[in-house]
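The following record pairs a protein chain with its ligand, manganese (II) ion.
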Amino acid sequence: MPDDRVAAEPCTALGGLNQDIEAYPGREVKLGELSVARVLPVRDRRLVGPWCFLDRFGPHAFGGGKPMDVAPHPHIGLQTVTWLLEGEVVHDDSLGFEAIGRPGTVNVMTAGTGIAHAEQTPRLNSGRLSGAQLWVALPDGERHAAPRFDHVADVPTIELRGGLAQVFSGTLADATSPAHHYSPLVGAELRVHASERLTLGVDRTFEHAALLLDGDIAAEGTVFAPHVLYYFGTGRSEVTFESRHGARLLWIGGPPFGETILMWWNFVARTPDEIARARADWEAGLRFGTVKGYDGPPLAAPPLARFARPNPVS
Ligand code: MN
């Protein structure tokens, strides 16, 4: 599928029945002023269920300016999911939606055949920024759907023995996020209280991954380090976490994605031709519409033949 005209990354679900927890160190990526940890895709682990991208930004404290400042840029074939721990981010898209993301809210943008958006720190802000940006690959039967945007003002929170879970995507335990998705999945923030143990019941058909956000955590003898993705294969019915001083972690999963996707810049596609056409349309001002509410020029697409890092906080 890859060809030498489009330097896209093919991403295949490897799945895995191995019951050991696998560790995949992320890498630091500089996005303008903002330094982020990219933990998905990483070498040897491109997908976790339908999740194909995960950037962790912050925590940052700032006195002025806009630490988050991503000019209008296009997407196809994916959903962006923005989850904040602290601070605020304003989303503006070419459908005309504007939404402020805050802790406890989730913004889910479905690109389908094409959408453009900008994300920035609002002028009135708390001086804090901490969160995660994730992408979900759309299955082949759904990826040509019309674009849409969903803002969930208050995601479901469930109390668990030893902690709690905020379910921003899909279903966990008996909570389901109202955010619209196109294949089975879970996305949640877990909190483990100090000196507690939390046992999470999970779907045996899902693979999962966890990212430590704050505090200290261990799962089945594995002590988590920051900016490392911990992978859990299918076939599990539960995972037990323990924390000494309390912790927050990101928990994502889904059935192994049965399709090989091609990722280039902000596009998730299947063929190099689709990517080339989407790039040409963006450069020509076609297909993706116009983002109002951002003061500045849109991002230019990188050359096709160069590996383009997927847009970071996008
Ligand atoms: Mn984006």
